[in-house]
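Exercise 7. Predict the joint structure of the components listed below.
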Amino acid sequence: MSATQRAEVASAGSPQLRAAEPVPVTAADGLLSLSPGAAQRESALRELATRAITPLVLLAAWSVGSATGWISPQTLAAPRAVWQAFVQLLGSGVLWDNLSISLQRALLGLVLGASTGLVLGLVTGLSRTGDRLLDPTLQMLRTIPFLAVAPLLVLWFGIDEQQKLLMIALAAGFPFYLNTHGGVRSTDRKLLEAARVFGASRRETIAAIILPAALPQLLVGLRQSLGISLIALIVAEQTNSPRGIGFLMMSAQQFFQVEILLVCVALYGLWGLLADVLVRTLERVLMPWKRAAARGRA
Amino acid sequence: MSAAGLAVQVRGARKRFGEREVLSGLDLDIGATEFVVMLGKSGSGKSTLLRALCALEPLDAGEARVPPRRSVVFQEPRLVESLRVRDNLLLGLPRTRAQLAAAEAALDEVELGGRSDAWPGTLSGGEAQRVALARALLRHPQLLLLDEPFAALDALTRIRMHALVARLCERHRTAVLLVTHDVDEAILLADRAVVLKEGQLGASFDVSLPRPRARGVPGFAALRRSLLAELGVVEQVGGSA
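Solution:
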């Protein structure tokens, strides 16, 4: 390998240097210098700018496509039209009217499903008898896609709030159950042994060791439940719902209001994003020891 | 059959894992303030015996008599990562003012005073193992069981830990059973070193070297050779002559 080739390899990954422009390498002794150069200290701003390029290009293409008539407004409304629809929905109160009821459904359904999942997961995770009694049945039921029972729920509970809440709860409950069960079950046996030797009571062992150890898995469950409850919400609201974001979408579809459809799609996206932020925040707040350990020795 | 001054009395202990019998009629006595080191190859059953003495593993046959207050330091620190150092020490103990003060004192003893608010994840391997030692001593054990507690530490930290454990065990006047495969460790710490062979106690060596001990003292090398021979090891490293 020649010195020039070596220099090219050494500078790979540095965006400032072009391959055609070889850097001099002090390789008189045949050794390569690995001290950090300017190339490795890429600024945070530059990284952010690079990340922003793709979404900005897509947005620009969309705008230009709409302005030149390449994209028909019946297919995809222009970014400006979507923004205007959003402002108008917000101003008239229509948006909040529908969003609030959707939020309420999703949260109630989630709380109902997640708390049931949590309790069942604790029972089966902590008690052998509970595990034998309930887990096989629950594992069997979880293989049924919740969408498959939607018609049944309509038949049993009609098309009012009850059916929607149950649908969301059902969807959110299973991931929470599975993760609680798994998290409680995967407690380090060696820690449980130590607790036994040092005379910790069952109650103290659960509160001080098992539950905190299961917390990361519980938050994984919450993340999954939040995601799937949104899907359940969309489905529940698009069938016979007088209010809600799903209803807004169905009526927009009937009147070919593409821009309103796009506003709703963006809202669902934002919802998912916020759910992610929520879980991340909880991870940070609820598990200070993880952060301390990551920061290193204090 | 109460034997005065004994902390541990094991008679005819048997334990089998599947086809393999790891303890086959083992007898062992440990005096009330005696420091016994049990040596053995890996898989010789020394950890099994130790686990039987802290009631984590039932014996298949035989009898093991132990004092009510026992503490263990395992090979890993086994600290609960979501509890601060102080709360790890107090696991299973009432949180009275006196106990809190005792916990701080126990940390002082292992040279970790002022670290009671630290999270275990921020401790080094040696520090974590010292917390585990403090947690064991806080309970004023009549029998302290040490299951290769230095095996996972680096060589330099291990030297400091040997000195610390020797000092603390002398001060607390408790019976100690240390299980290890490190012959030097045995000679440095033991009042008596025993070798576990084929599920039974083999030779027993009274270690009467004056304390504090160091590797170079007279008698060390001879004892080392005897113990290694008992373990079936001849030390000869490198060289072509």
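Discussion. Chain A has a mean pLDDT of 87.
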